[in-house]
Specification:
- The protein has about 350 residues and is of the alpha+beta class.
- The strands form 2 sheets. Strands 1, 4, 5, 6, 7, 8 and 9 form a 7-stranded antiparallel β-sheet that branches. A two-stranded antiparallel ribbon has the order 2-3.
- β7 and β8 form a beta hairpin.
- α3 runs parallel beside α5 and α8 packs parallel to α13.
- About 5% of the residues have low confidence.
Length: about 350
């Protein structure tokens, strides 16, 4: 006991330890470098777009507090409907999420973005999928539906260096009666000489974003692999390609993707003899009026829309299914071509289950 008291007395009279001070600052640096992996940071990044929409919604409601109930409902519904991609081609709509390879996402041995970061460590893919849900399927989200993930396949083509900004570009690849295939491309934009070289290569290559050729390139990258830089149509360098299978669920009920796409306003290009160069909210496609009749007053309501999604669409005669007509022609042709390519990947992975 006497030795312990002597030790405490020596410590109390010793000068402040510089070593402990250095350790404190090192701890601060480590904490700052890993701030992206702290508890709840993932949730904030992924769900932030929903928080923003909620805030905008309540601000609008506050501004309309002195209007009549009927007028308030009409304006709120119109604002929500304005989010729908009316007249858009489902294969041309691209959702982009930008991120940088932070220290907590980097592999300490290979000095590049860790393979796990593509799906988890940085919420890039999760955030991009949620943003795609908001921008491409806003009416579906308002109805209480969910987008369930069935499977995801990754192929890592080229490493992303530390501290480099990259993009996750999500597009719709194809769909069948149950599944929708989402393509995700992790790309970086070249700088300096590489930018000039990429631009010239793009001009010579002449690829088309998310066409059948691009889907073939994505699948070939997964099953084959190459060290030669793969360039996007705009000259960006492709680092990783991922294919996700998602389905649309209302509780335990699965809704065909074509029904959702038609209700959101996606459609094929107008016929040349209509005199319309492209559909838009000012010149909506025919399926948009049908969708509004189900969902918007006075003929429709959100409860009717939910009933339609949960099975009411089956009651529509096959020759009157407006969502199938909206997605016919060149959309259906590309859907089938892309589906044949993407299903080959699915069948190959399913066949791997029988290999022991």
């Amino acid at each position: 006991m006497q030795d312990f008291r002597l030790f405490r007395a020596l410590l109390s009279h010793s000068p402040p330890s510089k070593f402990l001070s250095v350790l404190k600052y090192i701890a601060y640096v480590v904490l700052l470098a890993n701030v992206g992996s702290l508890p709840f940071v993932w949730h904030i990044r992924v769900f932030w777009p929903i928080v923003v929409l909620k805030i905008e919604y309540y601000i609008l409601r506050t501004r309309l507090i002195f209007t009549s109930k009927a007028e308030r409902v009409r304006l709120l519904t119109a604002t929500a409907e304005d989010l729908c991609p009316v007249g858009a081609n489902p294969f041309e709509l691209v959702t982009v999420y930008r991120r940088w390879a932070s220290f907590d996402d980097v592999d300490m041995f290979g000095l590049h973005l860790s393979n796990s970061s593509y799906a988890k460590a940085s919420p890039a893919f999760d955030s991009a999928r949620l943003r795609a849900l908001i921008t491409s399927f806003p009416a579906w989200g308002r109805s209480g539906g969910q987008m369930a993930l069935g499977a995801t396949s990754y192929h890592f083509i080229r490493e992303i260096p530390p501290l480099v900004t990259y993009e996750v570009r999500l597009t719709i690849g194809s769909w069948d009666h149950k599944w929708m295939y989402i393509l995700a491309r992790f790309v970086t934009r070249p700088k300096g000489r590489n930018a000039t070289r990429s631009t010239s290569a793009t001009v010579n290559g002449g690829a088309q974003q998310n066409g059948t050729t691009e889907v073939e390139k994505a699948v070939d990258a997964i099953v084959g692999g190459t060290r030669v830089p793969v360039l996007e149509p705009d000259g960006a360098i492709l680092h990783c390609v991922a294919v996700s299978q998602v389905c649309f669920k209302h509780g335990r009920i699965t809704i065909p993707p074509a029904v959702i796409l038609g209700c959101e306003g996606f459609t094929k290009p107008p016929c040349p003899d209509t005199g319309i160069s492209s559909y838009s909210r000012a010149s909506p496609p025919p399926n948009w009026a049908k969708s509004q009749a189900v969902r918007v007053a006075p003929a429709g309501s959100m409860s009717k829309f939910q009933a339609f999604l949960k099975g009411g669409w089956r009651d529509i005669p096959e020759n009157e299914r407006w969502w199938e007509d909206a997605l016919g022609g060149p959309i259906e042709k590309k859907r089938k071509a892309n589906l044949e390519i993407l299903e080959s990947l699915k069948l190959g992975l399913e066949g791997a289950k029988s290999i022991y």
